[in-house]
Amino acid sequence: MPNIMPVSDLRNYNEVLHLVSENEPVFLTKNGRGKYAIVDIDEYERLIQTVKLLSELKKGEQSGVEKGWLTMTDIEKELGLNE
Predict the structure, then answer these.
(1) Phi and psi, residue 21, nearest 5°
(2) What's the pLDDT at 11?
(3) Residues 35 and 58 in one domain
(4) Which residues fall within 8 angstroms of residue 23, CB to CB, at 6 or more apart?
């Protein structure tokens, strides 16, 4: 169950931070609407790495569409595996 609380609860930030754990962010609302998410630093770093990976995969896909895809034979040749 998600932890959702008003941003005004940050007055007692130790209690709020205590609720944050891996895969258990705390969502803060302002004027009844979602405004912030507090996440565990390890989870944040994983999220950033995931975004970077997805971005690189998208670039690869775009390159394949624009320049053509490599066959397995092309890859083996490029890596020097079929000499």
Answers:
(1) -150, 175
(2) 85
(3) no
(4) 40, 43
Domains contained in the chain, number: 2
Q: Can you give the residue range of the structural domain that contains 58?
A: 42-79
Write 33-42 long-range contacts (CB < 8 A, 24+): 34/4, 35/7, 36/7
Name residues of the chain where pLDDT drops below 50. none
- Distance (Å, whole) CA 7 – CA 4: 9
- C-alpha pair distances (Å), 53 with each of 19, 44, 49, 67, 68: 29, 14, 6, 21, 21
